[in-house]
Amino acid sequence: MIRALAHGGKHRIWSSARPDPSSILLVPFADGIGDFVNMLPIIRAVRERYPNSRLTVVASQHARHLLTDSSINLVTPSWLRRESDPRLARWRWLLSQRLVASASWFGLRIELGRFDLTINLFKAWEHGVPFARDWTPQVPSRPGAVHTLDFLADHLAVWDVHLPLASRAPRLATRPEARAWAADAWERLSIGDRPVVGLVPASNMMIKQWPISAWARLNDALRRRGLQTVLFIPSPEHPYARLLTLTEHPPVPITTDLPRVAAALERCRLVIGVDTGLLHMAAALGISYVGLFGPTNPDMTGPYDRTDGICVVAPFAKIRQCGGCWKSFKYEDDRCHALSQGSCIGALDVSAVLRIVEALLSRKAAVANAAPSGQSVRVRNRD
Question: What is the pLDDT along the chain (383 residues), one digit of tens a residue?
Fold first, then answer.
């Protein structure tokens, strides 16, 4: 029996025999761009189950660019509108994330008021997912990890919401004005009809970022193969903008708002990215992708749809210090405790990534034998 973790500490199951609630508050499990992409099928399922209820979703500002259903009210609480104080980060570990999740209903009640039904996926996730066991990918791989979307979809039964397996893959739709902008940008930047590979090196966390030197080598290798590369960066001042000067054949930089980013991703033949929101967006747009993973497990947090995508895990055999890696994400210290510089994603070799990219682009039978779509790949670097 699935136990509900909603409305404070009470275990509460919403029965189909009860009248539908007039108001529902849906609290996502996390607030990143990729997290909200994974929330899209859940939001749709809740809306379909309770079509006449006033549905409010707690979300960061970027969610307004990803959700097109105007019947859903998005609200951004005060703590999601301000930057966290770096001076407090060193003390963050003193406060259990489970405790924060359990108390979240109280803060939301004070700021947003009372709702007939609260679907608190933040609390369900924090209390139900075995982070210590599954957050960090093991090499060789350890079976049994459950994707976050599957865990949450199964847990929705608590609130009499059902999301079948066939309906769980997130889907994004680009906006007409954004598509028009992307078409104009392609012409203005003289990209033409050449096949485009999108590069997504930036992440909100340093330990998820592949070294800039590796990106430079990958970019030049792709350009030598006749592919046009496009670099997605948050701003012209971002550290990865240095790729424009470190490469023999610089990629075309794209820095714009999220709807236009989605339209630009949609024009790519392939997207290569670290574990970040734009990689999830590319998968939800139906674009082929290669995801680069080090400290995070793609079987748990990677793009859900593996129909035409591959997640590559760095061949770094985890040591004792890696056991608490998940706490670097929970408590925002953004630090690898196993290595003095960088993180395990640095063990991912450019040639290994390039082989998988070429296989995916070629669509040959070799893909099925070497690195089939639909699974995570633990690569072995060549000397």
Answer: 233 333 444 445 565 667 889 999 999 988 899 999 999 999 999 999 999 999 999 998 889 899 989 899 999 987 766 665 555 555 555 566 777 777 777 788 888 899 999 999 999 999 999 988 999 998 888 889 999 999 999 999 999 999 999 999 999 999 999 999 999 999 998 887 889 999 999 998 899 999 999 999 999 999 999 999 999 999 999 999 999 999 999 999 999 999 999 999 999 999 999 999 999 999 999 999 999 999 999 999 999 998 889 999 999 988 888 888 887 776 667 888 888 888 999 999 999 999 999 999 986 334 434 445 555 665 544 43
Q: Backbone phi, then psi, for 370, in 5-degree steps?
A: -90, -45
- Cα dihedral 8, 48, 156, 160 sign: positive
Residue 141 in contact with residue 376, Cβ under 8 Å?
yes
CA distance 231 to 229: 7
Both tokens of 110, joined, read: 């004070």
> Please, how many CA atoms are within 13 Å of residue 257, restricted to the half-sphere of its CB?
13
Q: DSSP letters along 156-218, please?
A: GGGGT----GGG-S------HHHHHHHHHHHHHTT-TTS-EEEEE---SSGGGPPPHHHHHHH
Half-sphere exposure of 330 (CA within 13 A, CB side): 21
Eight-class DSSP state of 233: -
Q: Residue 378 corresponds to which amino acid? A: R
Strand partners, 310: 290
DSSP letter for each residue of 300-341: HHS-S--TTEEEEE------GGGGGTHHHHHS-----SS-SS
Task: Give the N- to C-terminal CA distance of the chain in Å, as an integer.
Answer: 51
Longest dimension (CA), the chain: 66
